[in-house]
Amino acid sequence: MPKRTPTAQPDLRLVQAQAEIYDLMRQPETTADRVKRLQLEARALAVEQVEALEAVLMQAASLAREIAEGGDAYPVGA
Question: Residues 21-48: what's their mean pLDDT?
Fold first, then answer.
């Protein structure tokens, strides 16, 4: 146990609000439960990736529209 001095700073860490608290008294996770949990996590991450891709594609479409409406402002092939 480290010595406490009046000026010692406590070792505190910030955690995210949605951080899960692990219950040390619960039974170990079964393989089926683990597979189900990992599939749910993978599905959630896939949804995030698809939403990010959608946002980037919308930006690309907007830029393409601006270029197309630019008419002669953009030379052909440039």
Answer: 89
